[in-house]
Amino acid sequence: MHALRTFALSLALIAAILQSACTEVSGTGRSQFNILSVDDELDLGQQAYVEELDTAKKAGHRLLTTGPEHDRVMQVSRRIFDAANRMHPEIARRFNWEMTVIDDPKTVNAWALPGGKSAVFTGLLPVTANDAQLAVVIGHEAAHAIARHGGERMSQQAALNVLVSAGFQLSEADPGTQQAVLNALGLGTLAFSRNQESEADHLGLLIAADAGFDPREAIPLWQNMAAAGGASPPEFLSTHPSENTRIQRLNELMPEAMAVWQAAKAAGR
Ligand SMILES: [Zn+2]
User: Fold this and answer.
1) Which of 52, 63, 90, 239 is the most exposed place for a label (fewest CB within 10 A)?
2) 20-47 burial: b if 16+ Cβ within 10 Å, else e
3) In the chain, what's the furthest Cα-to-Cα distance?
4) Which sign, positive or negative, has the C-alpha torsion 163, 169, 171, 173?
5) CA 199 – ligand 1 centroid, Å
6) Cα–ligand 1 centroid distance for 251 (angstroms)
7) Which among 119, 116, 121, 44 has a CA at the least distance from the CA of 84?
8) Where residue 246 falls among pLDDT bands split at 50, 70, 90?
9) Nearest to 181 by CA among 166, 160, 165, 161
10) Which residues are catalytic?
11) Is the separation of the CB atoms in 151 and 34 below 8 Å?
12) Which of 133-137, 178-182, 220-224 has the lowest mean pLDDT?
């Protein structure tokens, strides 16, 4: 088939998929392109969880089941998952939330996979000065799962692959399309985009506040995280523009988060 005709058909196909695969992000209402169903994400997340924990064990890291580090993470994450279920019932209540503590003191990181399977590395714990700061990190990761950022990323990548295999020539596209494709190409790694990071900061802060944690701790937390950066920056720092921009945004969100926190305290949380 002629390349141009193939390309035109591919565009029509993508347009059709875009229309049928648009969902709204819970809590922000942002329109999102996602060709995966929630059930797809639950399956993929479960598979990835088994693989990730297996990889950690093969690297010699224990998966903690007792002790103060384990107990601290479990107590905080239980409250975060409960708050996520309260605030985002339609999506979060379908998840099988689960937390594992990986005994890896050199890794300052945490993650939540699509569907809610999560992990905290013990290296994160000394960087989080108190439970509220730990709650902000776990809330941020839980927010990625609730906002279905993993499925969105995979969908963008798949759409890009269709374009490339149809002989898409970037130089011939209009500037708007060029920018969209370059943005998608920039997502070639597993890292989330800046927009997704900002959205996770926003939703995560509100979840932590609803769980009864002081949202103001988000500011010193991200300062601690920036200082702890170094050779392998944590997931949530790697794609951020700058610490100052992030803290400025968090300050703008603080009145909303404080109202949620006050209501949570009044409700006994
Ligand atoms: Zn993140």
Assistant:
1) 90
2) ebebebbbeeeebbbbbebeebbebbbe
3) 67
4) negative
5) 9
6) 18
7) 116
8) confident
9) 160
10) 141
11) yes
12) 178-182
Quick one: angle between helices 243-266 and 218-228, nearest 10?
140
Q: What pLDDT, on the 0 to 100 scale, is given for residue 166?
A: 67
Q: Which of 108, 102, 115 is nearest to 41 (CA)?
A: 115
Q: What is the CA(259)–ligand 1 centre distance, in A?
A: 24
Going from the Cα of 46 to the center of ligand 1, the distance in angstroms, rounded, reads: 19
CA–centroid distance, 192 to ligand 1, in Å, is: 7
**What's the rounded Cα separation, in Å, for the pair 23 and 33?**
6
The tens digit of pLDDT for each residue in 47-88 reads 999 999 999 999 999 999 999 999 999 999 999 999 999 999
pLDDT of res. 17? 67
Q: How far is the CA of 190 from the centre of ligand 1 (A)?
A: 11
Range of the domain at 258: 1-269
Average pLDDT over all residues of the chain: 86
Q: Name the domain count of the chain.
A: 1
Q: What is the mean pLDDT of residues 223-234?
A: 65
